[in-house]
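[Primary structure, fold]
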Amino acid sequence: MNKKILKYIRIVVTIAIPCLFVWFLIIGPYLEFKNNEKIMREAAERYYQLNEDKLPTGKRIATVSLKTLFDKSFIKNDFYLPYSKKPCSVTESWVKVRQRESGSYDYYTYLQCGPLKSNVDHTGPKIILNGDSEITLNLGNEYKEPGIKSVKDNVDGKMSNDSVTIDSSKVDTSKIGTYEVTYSAQDNMKNKTTVIRKVNVVQKLNTTIKQEIGENGIYKGYAVNNYFRFSGMLFRIVGLDGDNIKIVTANDVANVNYDGIDEWLDYFYEHIADSSKKYLVKNKYCYGDIASNNIHGNTECPNKTKDKYVYILSNKEINESRDEAGKTYLLSSTITWTANASDKETAWAVKDLFINGTQTMGFQREYNFGIRPVLTIKGDSLIVSGDGSVKNPYSLGELPKAKADEFLNTRYSGEYLTYSGYTWRIIESDTDGTTKVIAETPINLATDKQTIMYETDGEVQIYNPTEKGNIGYTINKKVGDTVNEKYFVTKEVTVPIYKTVAKYKEEIKSKKYKVKFAAPNMYEMHTASKGEVSWGYWLINSSEQEYRKYFISNIGIVVYVQTPTSFEQYVRPVGYLDKKVKIVSGSGTELDPYKISK
């Protein structure tokens, strides 16, 4: 072939290929897009010919969306971004019509297909607010509208501030909550912009308490308005401590021997959510020895602890909470330790009523009684919800709310869930992603008798899931007859064994077993009874001492049985939920527990 012809062909190809790319990438899509604009406009004209009553008059503008044109069959085929299957927006694309002075109409077409957009004014004015887009008001304060700084349109230019419509009608500063103030403006093409300012109506925690009980007060009697939700647990507000607030768990969390309390409280502190800990302050708590002739009605503080994040209530605080009739919300039917001892062998504990008619008694320190931790909250913390009732406790909103499809193992100790017909409570999440939970009440064993006993021979009866007739064996085998095991996994559990009486972290040895269900350990979170029940349940804690057994009695206290007599108790199982378990709904509270799925 002639060299000149070859050279010519090369030149043509060199020019043609870029031209084809330009056509394919730019000109072709552009022409297709412009053709779709034309189809939209013509469809809109036909729409208004058949719907003359919808045509605007005067300075008004009428709008018909691409969706309406599709739905009404004025356009047959869908619009797509050229060379793709991505549809054009049917809600953001529209045709607007405005009447001229002559009486005829102008049509303005806006089509949005991914990055391709019509060259027509489709953006509303830009509204700049005065002040912050989120403001906080104290409960009862007046909301003063800050207004707007300016409003400007990209086509119409600067607009009058009076053209902005402000709606603050939903703001109610008499109620705690988050409200929205809306600012709306339209340009000459009726493109609308709405900006929202959030108004948080809150109240400082110490302000609330001062209003309830006075400047230096403490809640007294059978208070019903001092419930407080914190770190997934329900507390009661004790009262003011300077500018800060002292709170105590609403019920016993676990059972601990008196001399193990300080170390156990470190364990409790570890289970407080990190997002909650930032609201805590260290405090010097009241403690010390009190003689028996000075225990009833005592309001003195023998000593103060070093700075601590967590402690327990003293007799002083309990006695101060009594009303004129001697009633106080700080007592329950369980037996709960106070921060006061009598001597080296004996410490003081409280109960709503002992056999001798008193509410305070001395017990040997080795006994495992209820423990109700006390925390001190920063007084200037903001209450974001609640009215202090048990159904709607005060809350700082410090825990992020659970979302649908969130894994259960991301949640917090003390939160509730419902599964297989029972309510459960989170003890903790394990490092392998499983979630340790405990049934809130005993479960039905699907047998004639709901209580079980040790049916093994021998003077020493240690919890053993592999020994037939043993409490541990029955629990592991029988719970699954009632509880759906689908979400539970087999895990290794530790049986703590003590020489004589169980004491926190003083087991002489332990044994490990792989099970799905076990009895609770009295020293773990949320294993204590609420006390307002008439059932007891077995514990996993064991002793080498002859005939000694451990269970929670029907009045909510740990019983140390050292007798060959058989005892029957209910089963309140502990188990591990699979790491894949997710939250479906719920708030994690006792009244609104999480629903779960896998």
User: Anything to note?
Assistant: Residues 402-597 form one domain. The radius of gyration is 36 Å.
